[in-house]
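Hello again,

I reread your note about wanting to compare the complex against the isolated chains. To keep things tidy I'm splitting this into two emails, and this first one only covers the full assembly. Below are the input lines as submitted, including protein chains and any nucleic acid or small-molecule components. They are followed by the predicted structure of everything together. The single-chain runs will come separately.
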Amino acid sequence: MTSSDGTIEQKRRYHAAVRALPLRDKIAMLIRIQQRESQLERVRTRLGRSTRVWRVWRVIP
Amino acid sequence: MTAITFADVLRTLDAMRAEGVIQQYAITGAVALSMWAEPVGTDDLDVAVIVSGEPHPLDPLHSVFEWLRAKEFVFQGEHVQIGGVPVQFLTDDPVLLREAIEAAVEIPYDETSHPPVTMRLVTPTYLAALWLLPSANTPVRRERTARLREAGLIDDGLFGQLRERHRL
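Full-complex prediction:
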């Protein structure tokens, strides 16, 4: 096995583990992603690069 | 003040069904993809519904929005804020979407709460078929379909049937 095979195998295991998470944990991840996107979007808007504003889900999973 | 939880959003959808406003609902779009495969960024929760009774000819979601207004939910453009989540309601048109709602699966979301909360999701094969509709067939959707396929979640037999039956 080469090192690139190892990386692919690690990724495969990671993706399989994420898919197997309970729905509540996935919603928690989704909210974190969405909040991060929202922060990035605010920076882009400040720099005049985008006018899109992401809506932040103000909930807990 | 009690914290708003995502489970409250699901309870609201259950209440709409229990009170006969809708016959059925299913979560579709990026949130459904996030639940089947891996979470992806999205700004809203897409909920497709089959409205009870004869829908308003010009405004098929009229009864849904009336119910939400009566419960004092806040409307913001094309979204309704349920809990802290912007929700976009979709009708069961085209036929493929109605079929997807009917074929959706109900999965436990939080079994520790009383009563337990479930989440009704459009299945991966129907999501991939819906993303082939001309209005939805974008590079982002094709990438999402690739994620589902890579995860081995698409039933190729059913996918072929849907493509043929709905001319996709």
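For quick reference: The mean pLDDT of chain B is 94.

B.
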